[in-house]
Design goal:
This protein is α+β, with helices and mostly antiparallel strands. It is built from four helices and seven strands; from the N terminus they run H-H-E-E-H-E-E-E-E-E-H. It has helices spanning 3-17, 21-25, 50-63, 121-127, and strands spanning 28-35, 46-48, 66-71, 75-77, 80-90, 96-108, 111-118. Strands 1, 2, 3, 4, 5, 6 and 7 form a seven-stranded mixed β-sheet that branches. The two termini are 20 Å apart.
């Protein structure tokens, strides 16, 4: 995987931090899937297709006043990028929540085809064929 692939994923995360839904979706494949079924928070589920995924990310942005995703690293593995992330979320009443998770982004044909959430780094690495 080229550094350009990592950069596309980084740009999507930056767009989420900036509350830029168009930016989040800019390099997304029409057949994208977001698997957030392992989430312990809002909107756990699996979302198929561009509009369903856009609606999911939009609902997520509407639920919080501010979101700061801080990727700890980008681990390349073929078409996938494993991203351990620390996230701070502020609710509309000012309450701050912190979470850690691992996202796996799959890129194909210069588009993001899939986002998949894992709770643990080892689980995400195993899913892409890597071991810690």
């Amino acid at each position: 995987m080229s550094q350009a692939n990592v950069e596309i994923v980084r740009q999507a995360i930056t767009a989420m931090n900036e509350r830029d839904l168009d930016g989040v979706m800019r390099d997304t494949d029409p057949e994208v899937e977001v698997d957030w079924s392992r989430s312990r928070g809002v909107e756990a589920g699996v979302y198929h297709g561009y509009q369903a995924c856009r609606d999911f990310w939009g609902t997520f942005l509407e639920a919080f006043d501010r979101i700061v995703n801080s990727p700890e690293e980008f681990i390349e593995c073929g078409e996938r990028v494993v991203i351990p992330i620390r996230t701070c979320l502020w609710g509309w009443e000012g309450i701050k929540v912190e979470a850690r998770y691992v996202a796996v982004a799959t890129r194909r044909n210069a588009r993001i085809l899939e986002w998949r959430l894992y709770q643990e780094r080892g689980e995400a690495l195993k899913a892409v064929g890597l071991e810690e």
